[in-house]
Automatic annotation (TrEMBL):
SUPFAM superfamilies: Glu-tRNAGln amidotransferase C subunit
GO MF: asparaginyl-tRNA synthase (glutamine-hydrolyzing) activity; ATP binding; glutaminyl-tRNA synthase (glutamine-hydrolyzing) activity; transferase activity
Protein source organism: Sulfitobacter sabulilitoris
Name of the molecule in the record: Aspartyl/glutamyl-tRNA(Asn/Gln) amidotransferase subunit C
Any GO BP: regulation of translational fidelity
Catalytic activity annotation: L-aspartyl-tRNA(Asn) + L-glutamine + ATP + H2O = L-asparaginyl-tRNA(Asn) + L-glutamate + ADP + phosphate + 2 H(+); L-glutamyl-tRNA(Gln) + L-glutamine + ATP + H2O = L-glutaminyl-tRNA(Gln) + L-glutamate + ADP + phosphate + H(+)
Length: 95
């Protein structure tokens, strides 16, 4: 596949990139170079290769899933303008 100047201009317009007319030949050449790299990648045999999320094997660190109350009630309520009986106190909004 080859990109000509009119296609490069259309791609630039779709990407909302202003490209001067004298720069279109260089842009088309860059697009063609990129497409050449993509064609090279399609030639690689990947049969039997498992997909990876990273180039190095990683194991997710996990913590024990334990239900707690956080033990931070006093710390959290210290910022409240009004706290009563361990809860935030707010004005009544409905009668």
């Amino acid at each position: 596949m080859s990109i000509d100047e009119s296609t490069a201009a259309r791609v630039a317009k779709l990407a909302r990139i202003k490209v001067e007319p004298q720069a279109l030949p260089a842009l088309a050449a860059e697009f063609n170079t990129i497409l050449g790299f993509i064609e090279q990648l399609s030639e690689v045999d990947v049969e039997g290769v498992e997909p990876m999320t990273s180039v190095t094997p990683q194991v997710l660190r996990r913590r024990a899933d334990e239900v707690t109350d956080g033990n931070q009630q006093d710390k959290i309520l210290s910022n409240a303008p009004d706290a009563r009986e361990g809860f935030f106190a707010v004005p009544k909004v409905m009668e």
